[in-house]
């Protein structure tokens, strides 16, 4: 019965995600009128793919909520933060860097920023209400060890300056850049330069520094998830990795006139794999600051009140 109820909630929430995603985009477009070129896909196909992306996003959000110590509005706030920053904000600031090749009109980017915020806030409220309700008295009071500032700074610097940029550039080169259409789309040439030549270019043009800034934002949004998720490093790392991988990449399922052909698939494989490892790396290096004595739990989706 428990799993039947979870299945019903999953279906209802997936439909809600799709509806609120569409509503958010309509409202955002009302403020920043933007036109998207046709992709050739029918409206039914686009809606079906949006529903599939919504279902994937819903699944990882349900896993996060089901493993959270926090309840009520505090949990809804973290849920909205994760959806908005990962799915809409971080993806679009990446677009801004590469927009010379992509060619998105700024009004469309503003629409995604605005509509995404509406979608994230409304869905977070609905998801927490459907999953566990709003009873702030049920939130656990968490006592965490006091981190030494020196140790914390060293670990964050290692993550943002080394770990994320290396994951980003290694996945970018050895996965996405191996597809000739990707190279043609971004450079206009099928030439395959060596990894070291590409790295020199990325350092000179400032892309490494740009990714350091993005990495710091990733770490900041990971922090509340690490605090509120029950269990140890492995559980937190898997949930964080799923959030990073799925929320960023489910939208690659949609027809994209600015990334034709196989390019969305290449980017999806690239960023889903690297983002999952990135979430695991954050949990591994920062978990000592979130350790709390508690009973071991064996399931990634423990019982929650229905």
List the main descriptive attributes of the protein structure presented here.
306 residues; mainly alpha; globular
How far apart lie the N and C ends? 11 Å
Continuous helix count: 10
Q: Give the class from helix and strand content and strand pairing.
A: mainly alpha
Tell me the strand percentage band. under 5%
| Residues in helices, as a percent range | over 70%
Enumerate the spans where pLDDT stays under 50 for 5 or more consecutive residues.
Answer: 293-306
Radius of gyration: 20 Å
Explain what you see.
It is a single chain. By secondary structure, this protein is mainly alpha-helical. It is 71% helix and 0% strand. The protein has 10 helices and no strands. Helix 3 (72-102) runs antiparallel to helix 8. The longest helix has 31 residues, at 72-102. The radius of gyration is 20 Å and the shape is globular. The N and C termini lie close together (11 Å).
């Amino acid at each position: 019965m428990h799993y039947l109820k979870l299945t019903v909630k999953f279906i209802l929430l997936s439909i809600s995600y799709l509806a609120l995603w569409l509503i958010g985009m309509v409202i955002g477009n009302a403020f920043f009128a933007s036109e998207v070129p046709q992709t050739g896909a029918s409206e039914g196909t686009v809606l079906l793919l949006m529903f599939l992306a919504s279902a994937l996003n819903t699944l990882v959000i349900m896993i996060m909520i089901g493993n959270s110590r926090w309840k009520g509005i505090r949990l809804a706030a973290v849920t909205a933060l994760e959806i908005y920053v990962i799915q809409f904000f971080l993806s679009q600031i990446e677009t801004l860097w590469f927009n010379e090749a992509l060619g998105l009109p700024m009004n469309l980017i503003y629409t995604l920023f605005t509509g995404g915020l509406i979608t994230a806030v409304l869905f977070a409220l609905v998801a927490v209400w459907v999953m566990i309700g709003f009873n702030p008295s049920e939130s656990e009071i968490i006592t965490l060890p006091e981190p030494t500032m020196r140790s914390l700074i060293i670990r964050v610097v290692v993550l943002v300056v080394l770990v994320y940029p290396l994951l980003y550039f290694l996945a970018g080169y050895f996965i996405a850049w191996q597809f000739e259409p990707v190279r043609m789309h971004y450079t206009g040439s099928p030439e395959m330069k060596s990894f070291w030549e590409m790295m020199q270019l990325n350092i000179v043009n400032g892309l490494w520094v740009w990714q350091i800034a993005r990495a710091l934002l990733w770490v900041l949004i990971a922090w509340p998830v690490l605090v509120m998720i029950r269990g140890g490093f492995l559980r937190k790392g898997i949930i964080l990795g799923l959030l990073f991988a799925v929320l960023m990449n489910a939208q690659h399922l949609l027809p994209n006139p600015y990334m034709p052909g196989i390019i969305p698939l290449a980017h999806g494989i690239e960023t889903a794999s690297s983002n999952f490892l990135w979430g695991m790396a954050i949990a591994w290096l920062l978990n000592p600051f979130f350790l709390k004595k508690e009973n071991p739990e064996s399931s990634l989706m423990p019982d929650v009140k229905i």
